[in-house]
User: Fold these one by one.
Assistant:
Number 1:
Amino acid sequence: MEKTQRRNTVSDLSRRAFLRRASAATVAPLILPRKLFGATAPSNRITIGMIGMGRQAYHANLPAFLNAPDAQVVAVCDVDSWRCEQGRQKVDQFYGGKGCAVYRDFRELLARPDIDAVMISTPDHWHVPMAMAAAKAGKDIALEKPLTMSIAEGRLLADTVCRYGRVFRTDSEFRSSKANLLAVELVRNGHIGRLHTIRTGTPREHGTVGSPPPMPLPAELDYDAWLGPAPAVPYTMERVHAPRQLAARPGWMRVRDYCDGMILNWGTHLNDIAQWGNNTDRTGPVEVEARGKYPDDGGLWDVLIDFEAEYRYANGVKLVYKMDHAFIRFEGDEGWIEVDKGLKAHPRTILSGQIGTEEITFPLKTEKRDFLDAIKTRGTTLEDAEVGHRTASVCHLAHISIQLGGRKLRWDPDREVFPDDPLANRLLHRPAFRTTDSRNISGT
């Protein structure tokens, strides 16, 4: 693979830290005094059930809903009882009562008729089964990205959400960045001339653990339920998450049975903005060629440690996507715009251009506000299931090319198949879910 030209400068930053640097003007949710909430949600509040209470839910998703004046969290669910208890305490402390219900079985939470919507913050291999169950139960859904573990999963999810008429929000905060939004508006309105190339990058993947031996199960973890549709394998901490803490990055994010690693994890943030700027967020490229490298040690953590992909779209735009550092760059025949620890452009006068009243604009709001607003209007969110599926598909396409030795693949985004390529089409699916009495899943 061609060596990268930039040093990685943000691989240790969280994606939210990247956005804070990129945009200081992200809209914050309103805060209502706790004393105005009772033990149960008032009738005019949207009731929320949290499925998965790991670090992403605890530190980001839960506080956003707690601070929303038109929502109330009424239940938390996790197969790790310690994590579930941390969530319950946070909810009850905020509202000043003891009204938050606790579940280990996500199906019991979904069965409650008084819950309007769910926030699913689980490892990736549980995303689609839980979201589909939520749609069938009549719940609106906010689902952590990446939505899926395969392109076929994504099509099934998007179609199911549509069939049941549910409001859906892909839970990525990147469309809530003022820098990203302005970049997209300038590109979509031709302020850099004709767009011809987009470049995106993810932080690098670091660390290896070899093949850790089996360990005794933590008393608080229902491991069989955690595995759910994934293969049955012995427990080791590095496969799941560190017990009784909500800070460290969990090991499952580097195990392909549960997650595809940076190529999907950060990629679905950055390539969503790429697709948005290219006005292709409900379709996709027509060609992809990618190369990548997996760890040499054959150990537990087996996601890609390097990759580079090149795509071609039907409109002639080229997308170059690689593991480097987190950035998004749009290049046109009259200049370029880049979001990389801030917004920059050449010529700089591009950034001083005003978006006209007759030009394309988008609302600036947090992903949770977007979700709640759409629930009330029964409208479409800025990043619904179809958009989230198409964004994940861009990343999956590169991973499929890598698994096939880096060969160039033609892609039909309308039929979502590789024309005349049975081997590539087999990789549109993952192995079938195993049969298990799965209950809930521990959060990210």
Number 2:
Amino acid sequence: MNSSVLQSVIVPETETLRGAMLSFDRSALRVVVICDEKRRLRGIATEGDVRRALLAGHGLLAPILPIANTNPVIGRTDMSRQELVNLLSERVYFLPVVNEEGIVEDILSFDKRTTIPIASPTVGERELRYVTDAVLSGWISSQGKYITAFEERFAEFCGTKYAVAVSNGTVALHLALTALGIGPEDEVIVPSLTFVATAAAVRHCHATPVFVDVEAATWNIEPAKIEAAITPRTRAIIPVHLYGVPCRMDVITKIAKERKLWVIEDAAEAHGAEFLGKRVGSLGHAGCFSFFGNKIITTGEGGMVVTDDEDLNSRLRVLRDHGMNPARRYWHDVVGYNYRMTNLQAAIGVAQLERWDQIIAAKDRIREWYDANLPQDLFEIARPTPDMRPVCWLYTVLLKDTANGLSRDSLLHALREKGVDCRPIFFPLPAMPPYFEDDWENRYPVTRRISEWGFSVPSSVELNWYELERVTGIILLLSGVGIEKESALHDSAGHLKYFP
């Protein structure tokens, strides 16, 4: 193990449960190795050990050593690699390796997963604590203190006055469109490359999505082509901040203002991204977010609409709750929807927001790793402009046609065969039956190219550097780069070069 990573899991025998939890976040290994002042092994404790201690009533400042395994299975530095590996099992997940003096020199871990997932939520003790509190309060449906807290804190996070929590990201889009009066005979401009929910929400309003090709640099809607798509029936534009890269919102909002159009940002994949120093979601008339399990901030399922417009905020809340008059219970002035979030989901959201900076920083490190270790002569990435501060939802690249004749789909198949989950970029919307357009291949050439060659690789916050190294190494070998390029990830001592 890299010495810096090892150092991050070693804690003193005086460490507290809180200190151990901080170590879990730093190392991503979910274990601490407890040592004396000479780094001799005293025991090990896992995240599960700490969670059980907290549930049993131990405080955050309680010492870690009494709840640790003080007699763990250990390896010795004079053992062969195979002998050490043989000690690992589903009962022995972590193996401290000590020298003849009992000083910890390494720790090995057992990974029971056969596949490195494309994305997985990072949910820990704080989320469990808040959900437990919500359950014990009796407020487990669509009312409770966590709903209000989540809305207030997410509005603050986005830099908007209001936030309205809903049951998922798709209904966030539908609710925003409906509250802005989008309906039959209306047209809404949508990028031709995005997840299908963006167009589906328009259809749910019985309106028509009008597609615009994306730009080659950012993979987002091409502002220069929006003007040509506007007709007398156009009412709104939905720019999508695809894979966490912001759209060029200054140009888009200028067009919208001149043509008197609504701007509804689809920021489902871009929590925390910024354009010209402002958070996405705050740049249009409304911003819509998803909190699905693979998103940067998650509530399992859930969504949010943010806005600075007081009247829009009021309409959103009425429509979200069956159209009920807020001043006259069970009196319904309009036809509404049951689009409410539960207090349990909001409790997870509050916990997530309390460490959003750690989550986004971890995502940034993942992006930096891939940027540094996937060669630019084989792979192309989206290129944000200097006024954009992107976030890494799923790290996504295009396989260049110079990649030794390798096709994107054959690469993805081979990655899955080797235990690395991966996803192709979304299909072009105008290629699919509900939205099909004749000659779409020629009408949306940039979308076609990105969709044909693009794919996403594992991007979970929980990924450790060994998993990232494994993913990168497999991609390099499969793409024909060879061992020479793979070995460039290490220094002369065999340690990872780019990250500690």
Number 3:
Amino acid sequence: MEWTRCYTYDRPGEDPQSDPNRSTFERDWDRLIFSSAFRRLQNKTQVFPLPNEVFVHNRLTHSLEVASVGRSLGSMVGEQLVREEPEIADHETSRDFYLNHLKTVIAAACLAHDLGNPAFGHSGEDAISSFFQQNQDKLYANKPLTKYYSKAEWKDLIRYEGNANAIRVLTKPKAELEHGEFQLCYTTLAAILKYPCTSGLNDKKLLHRKKYGVFQSERHILQAVAERTGMQPDGGSGKQLAYRRHPFVYLVEAADDICYSIIDLEDAHKLGILSYAECRELLQPLCLLDEATTEAHLAQRLAQFRDDHNAQIGYLRAKAINGLAKATVRQFIAHRRSILAGTFTHSLVDALNAELEQNGRPNVLKEVKNISVQRIYNHSSVVRIELSGYRIFHGLLDVFLESTLLLGAGKGLSSYQEKAFGLIPSQFGIQETQSPYEKTLRLLDFLSGMTDPFALKLYRNLNGIETPGVHA
């Protein structure tokens, strides 16, 4: 890849436009902000259950904060690349892109990175996957479930992936729009493709293939993005494709890594899961990753908040994010050659971890991760919502999948199945002539787009726990 050729202003189905007031990448940002898919994130769980008395982060606030950090990373990296890379500095169009537009590309990609995640946190993905795994031999019209799909399609379903669904949400055709409602630039899509491969080539030993990034239905999108942005092939053929990561992905990933690790600590403090002393001990060393920050300065500023521990943790959170952002930018610039070549095998945060250990500095990031797993992600409130997500998604798939598969299969639907199918909004476009795989994906479009409250309410209605319009 080359710095001057790894971006494009083109987008599917549209000619490049010149607008003196709004760049093509700003239009990507605007389309995302005003979309219903983005708005629905406000009622999707991030980690902790949606708030009652204490406000914690949901997918919407998380995405906005990741976009804010991503914009800063893009701005700092863009400026440094112009200084460090003569091929950029001497190329007028590239100099303009890295100084003025890279930050918007990264911010827009950050906004979109969680659009494919179902309700109830990451357990929503696992719940959908486990349903297909557990029901592989179940008979639908005297035919085992697995027999409705090819091997490649079945892998998509038993390893259901929110990253792949995000690309589907952003690119699947809608109504009269051949290329989908967003029609994001190829550059923005490249920055979102954290795992640029299909499900048959994911490999947990490789960072860029630890998961997969597109369903079979969108592998042509992966090909188009790779061709337009110069992403390098990494094996595969036919229905299974893989590419090296695009360099901009590392900045989107870093923004996400920084936010969820730090913000989860702040939420845990607000909920009383972690004490003030524990959070301060974890956050303060991260603040010092910014070489302009000293312990004396931190102590002075914290003293100004007196005994307001929430305000003190909020200040430390902001400084920790600032320190981590500057440190990850240093990692990107230091490793920019291998990042561009597609041979860099670590996330920027992991590279920072390694550097801290080599220099004999306290590896607080690893400690943050360990405490998050032990005390936050396994907290009873988090576990309860994950278990609820399993039951709810399994229940909804039990109701809807059979009627979806049998539609147009030569088997008449029962009255119950007809009524169940009638609850799926027509906008999802499930048709008799579609393959079982395409019909199933369109059903999953419906289910994965649900907010937590809507999924719960529908599950309770369909199971007779709550009757619509009747309240105890």
Number 4:
Amino acid sequence: MKPSYTIVAFLLTVGSATAAQVAPAVTSAASPRGLAVSGVVHYDLRYSQTAQFGYGQDGREWSMASGDASYMNAGKRFPFSMQYGGGYGWTWAGPSSPGNTFQSLSLSQGVNGRSWNLSATDNVSYTFQTPTTGFSGVPGTGEPIGGSGSTSTTNQTVLALNTRTLDNTAAIGLGYRLGTAWSLNTGVSSGQLRFIDSNGQDTDALSVDAGATRILTEHDSVLGQYSYSRYSYLGSGLTSQTNSAQLGFNRQWNRRFTTSAEVGPLWFSTSGIASSESTVMTNTVMLAMNASANYILRNGLASVSYFHGSNGGAGYMLGAKSDNVSGSFYREFGRNINVGITGTYVRTSALLGATFEYACSKDNVAYICLVPLDITPVTDAKYGGVQATRKLGRYVNVFANYTAIDQSSNLQVSSQNSTPGYNMNILNGLDHSLSFGIGYSPREVHLRK
């Protein structure tokens, strides 16, 4: 099946299964418990009008109909959660887009024992540009920004416009408590990044990790973590691997403020070659670290995070070093107004001093695309947005959103036969958008057994 059809079938299957779970059972003598499941169901519907300006999309005006739905069963034994966001957009004026549909789905299932816990998660998204703000990654839809859980992370650290991708990550984790002070954890994850129109490097990722945590006091804990990641590139004979070992410290300063930090060495290596002209940097040692701070406001949340490490190359590099700084703020003003702000800076630089090639296409014609040998590809990306929402009644609200994405890059990918007009859609400038919309948000539905 083609990737676009695969995700539609997957989402329809999950939607049908979820609907079957939350459907009310007929109350009768044979069914005295009433509903088959318990939990909380919520959904939102929105319509927005967006105007875009700047690099690549100057003068574009388009509308979006979107929505999201969530279900959470906070059971102690088998906790489950589902979040879906998606929609459809159509262009009224200006440059067109290769895609109109965007979807994102997150599933999480847990199993808790007396001294152990097992978790399984899956996150899949289909978009027509690099995800930035909001759960679905498409700015201007009216989805919440700046709050906890409002943004899904992405490994596409190189910003691209008019680029349809299918991104999926599945993970399984196991934790075990050793008494009251020690706990162990291990996990494995698998990811796939696919470029629907063959204008990027398809990448597969596999990661395993294991670690231990020691509780020092009521507020402090230390941890040690080892992880291994392997990246393979479809159509290429090259693979890259990373091994890292980190020590970390977590502190809960009070009920509102928490911090965490981890640091340690990371070894990057490659095997195979990307093409006959490649010169590969086979071994690199670097320092990896990540840190975060979260503060719960009286009527909101503020957070900041930093990451320094490696990734698979975001579809345009064969292994990359990444620095990521992000912050968010969410605040409710009274009962009717809330404001969300988010911002991110990402620097992505190639870890390979090499040229590489991969299959690509334009107008259904196959070519070979090349990354030049005489440069080290580097991108500096910045993106963020601010959104204000006001309730007009019990269920209706209006919102305004401003989003800006900016990137400077020396990453220029060209076709081997210099096809006129061939463009890899990598952002190299400033693009910003202004959106207004209206939403319908009914109350949560509480299901009980």
